[in-house]
Amino acid sequence: MAYTKRFDGRAFDELRKMKVKIGVVPRADGSALFSFGDTIAIAAVYGPRPLHPQHMQNPEKGVLRVNYDMLPFSVTERKKPGPNRRSSEISKVIEWALSPAVRIDEFPNTVVDIFIQVLQANASTRCAAINAAAIALAHAGVPMNELVGAVSIGKIDKSIVADLIKEEEDYEDGEGATDMPMAFTSRSNKLCLLQLDGKISGEELKEAIKAGEKACKKVYAEQKKALKMVKE
Q1: Are 223 and 134 in contact (CB under 8 A)?
Q2: Cβ neighbours of 92 (radius 10 Å)
Q3: Secondary structure of 19-54 as H, E, C letters
Q4: What pLDDT score was predicted for residue 78?
Q5: What's phi and psi for 151, nearest 5 deg?
Q6: Which of 163, 126, 160, 148 is nearest to 224 (CA)?
Q7: Percent helix, percent strand, percent coil in the chain, to nearest 5
Q8: For residue 160, is it left (φ>0), alpha (ψ between -120 and 50) or beta?
């Protein structure tokens, strides 16, 4: 049976309700909360500050360092506390996605630390984390060329949909589910993250990227609105 109606009733290109809060961690240099519906991520930024130990310092540019994790009760089955292979991999993915937008070369011998916690998870956690981190960097005053927006695009059976939920990630009928987290820079519109878990044709991938580009513009609108309110 073809996937013609989403589990939560949204249109195929409709994102869940987004929520943005800035300054949620008072002692951080910058912080933000970003949510896609039930998926909630908080990011806190510290720095630029001197990188220790000194032998790790780079005299030509600074270092962007990301630490992503999920709270033990953020998912239905309790997650074992502490870092694991998945959180280490996602930390690196977020770092790579944000790097094109951050002018880290202006701060040699320093580090900018981004700590991200997923408070509640219903799929798309790395995308919510990237969105929160980009806003937190801007809030901290870290020089950036532009923001970064992220969203998960899926091929559920034969349909391309935006902002997956858990039931869609686990969909097994027909051609099953293909999950594609992706991120775009806000002004230059460059694709700075694309991961793919599943099977998809070349034409379907082109359609998915176009859907991701469109969805990320909606994310950027929410990011920009929140930052503008803080400045005012």
Answers
A1: yes
A2: 12
A3: EEEECCCCCCCEEEEEEECCEEEEEEEEEEEECCCH
A4: 56
A5: -155, 155
A6: 148
A7: 30, 30, 40
A8: beta
Q: What are the sequence ranges of the domains in the chain?
A: 18-231
Residue 165's contacts (CB-CB under 8 Å, 6 or more residues apart) are 7, 8, 16, 37, 38, 122, 123, 124
Please name which of 161, 18, 134, 123 lies closest in space to residue 66, comparing C-alpha atoms.
Answer: 134
Q: What is the pLDDT of residues 126-153, one digit of tens each?
A: 999 999 999 999 999 999 999 999 999 9
Express each pLDDT in 102-132 by its tens digit: 999 899 999 999 999 999 999 999 999 999 9
Phi, psi of 43 (to 5 degrees): -125, 140
Strand partners, 153: 162, 180
- The answer for residues whose C-beta is within 8 angstroms of residue 192's C-beta and 6 or more apart is 96, 97, 98, 99, 100, 101, 148, 183, 184, 185
pTM, two decimals, is 0.93
Q: Does the domain at residues 18-231 carry the CATH identifier 3.40.50.1240?
A: no
Structure tokens at 165: 């939920």
